[in-house]
Here is the input.
Amino acid sequence: MDDIIKENKTEIVEEEKRESAKRNEALRENDYIVEPEEIVTIDALIQKILDGDKQYDLTKIVSAYELAEMYHHDQKRESGEPYISHPLSVAYILLELGMDTDTICAALLHDVVEDTDCTLAELEKKFGSDVAMLVNGVTKLGKVEIFTKEEQKAENIRKILLAMSEDIRVIIIKLSDRLHNMRTLKYCREEKRRTIAHETMNIYAPIAHRLGISSIKDEIEDLAFYYLDPFAYMEIEEQMKIRKDDREELVEKIKEKIRNRLQKENYDPLPQIEGRVKSNYGIYKKVYRDGKDIDQIYDRYAVRIIVNTIAECYNILGIIHDMFRPIPNRFKDYISTPKTNMYQSLHTTVIGREGVPFEVQIRTWEMHQMAEYGIAAHWKYKEGIKGGSTKDDNRIAWVRQIIESQQESNDVEEIVRAIKNDLAPEDVFAFTPKGDMITLPKGSTVIDFAYAIHTQVGHRMCGAKADKKMVSYDYQISTGEIIEILTTNIEGHGPSRSWLSIAKTNEAKSKIRSWFKKERREENIFEGKNALEREFRRNNMRVPEEDLEDFLALDMKKHSCETLDDFFAAIGYGGVQMSKIMQRLKSEYTKRYAEKPQPEITQEDIKPKSLKNKSGVIVDGIDDCAVKFAQCCNPFPGDDIIGFITRGHGISVHKCDCVNYLSQKDIPEQKDRWIQVRWEENKTDSAFFKTTLDIIAVDRIGLLADVSSALAMINIYIYESSSRELKNGNAILSVTLSIAGMEQLDNVMSRIKKIKNVISVERSGR
Here is the structure.
């Protein structure tokens, strides 16, 4: 049997080697697809600046080049070229985007801090704080010992996004850096090529899409696709070559026909008319993902018409529909409803007399600059704009949203998942009953929709309707649907833990975790501790209780947990995922305890811990159950109490004089569900209990304020309060408080009695 397994493993390894060789051969045979990169020199960069119509501080840029050349002098790229060719190429790409002087300087210097002995202080002294900030933003973190390789990558991305939220130029530099690296990726070894291509496709392409920089997005997607699946790339390339001549001839005929018609309509000057070819990766997604034949892709080539005003866009749309037959359901108005990256155009698919469908895009010049350069268009066509001026632009609001949700999750890898999910190019557009449009990633559920409206709408959600029909929580919304979120005002209502596995967006998951983190700490600690103990038992690990904090110290530090309870709570609300930490814990356990004789685990050890130390209540005869205090009577230590076995919610503790208990204790079908419970003696934990006080006083202005002020002075938390006027002219004020014990309760009641016009203070019977 071992020989068979060994033989199978050998065959698998050999097969992987053969596939690798095929990929390398395909790349070697088709290097013409990735055209050789022309080396950029400082002279070419200067000439590019002089040829443009934008003013640059050429002296500052040349000084940045000289410093970069000095530090990179002895370094080579994997292609064998001098390393300085890379920052020069990045700077050239940024010039094409029209970025400002400081951005060009930062591009020339972007690797000197990371790869040489140059310091940020030196850069700030010579080039100013803006250049130093931009270089720091794109500089990777040094190796952090407590992070895995994947976590290190996630932290670097998080650092870039943090800098990006302050100045958008950081990510524009990083995208240009990634574009040049992709253009020269063929010089890297295969494993590195695939790793970088995956990262580009999953992280940088979605960011470029969200920023609307299609000139970079399309190229890095195509290059990443080429290295990830060269066979599919070449197949599409060959099929497009077969249609190339016909396509170019067809597009030219269509352009000429439109141009002649617009001349007849007396357009002066004539709008610019261009041809556009769909990227190979764009075709691949529709052919392989959607299962379409290449001839069924209506927008694989298109004509683009650029005009001066929005009114002209709609006028020309009418002319196009008069000239060609429009295909039903293929018209999209992104002018009235822009995409999330602020892209605007009219799209319509029509069929000419040749019977071949093609897409027509109609937009203004301003829309065209935004479509090509995205947020970088600010620098290309406006003078003197500082990077920080776009800080509050809604185009980068999603950056701060991701960062905020990342802080709640305590999971450094969440940032990568957020980018993959929340920045996906495919969006759906749904509407509230009032007509407000909500944009979400494809596959989002009604839970995501609720939290996108408002945090409290999500927390209080109790149902949902799609186009007036009730739907389940996992219902995935579609573009154009009207989604109505049903909410409840029941006190204490909140999300379910199961929602974490249903929600699609990082925003919704983060808000759900945040709710559990803030509202259910004791429950989180209990759930988290049990989850950890279950994993320990499943992996046959037994860590002595006195060693547990030291054993978990590294993970506690990584997730910013100061105490064991903080760590248990983080597990409970989902901030720490057991699957992410168990591999390291198993290795650590083997190092520490593998050589030591382990005591035999008894049935008593496996038995779950009781909740009595947390609730302060001991339930006779039942050791593993949840305990909660009934809101109808709010039992308090010292009261005579009784327990009621609920269906699915543990034991509900009531006072023995509670009206609900007195009215139901003799009902036959309920009698067996009432059980004996008692307060734990000598309890030292700082548990808090709800109790309600009825305060009767002479009605006057400021009474409620005086009561609230008195309670605040002694740090008493008020859950709720209500008041009403009595028939005799007095007022009764009911306040529900958080109290630690009977001594504190006596102190609170004594304080309230001293307030002016207070007649009496008693515990409520409800």
User: Anything to note?
Assistant: The chain has 35 helices and 20 strands.
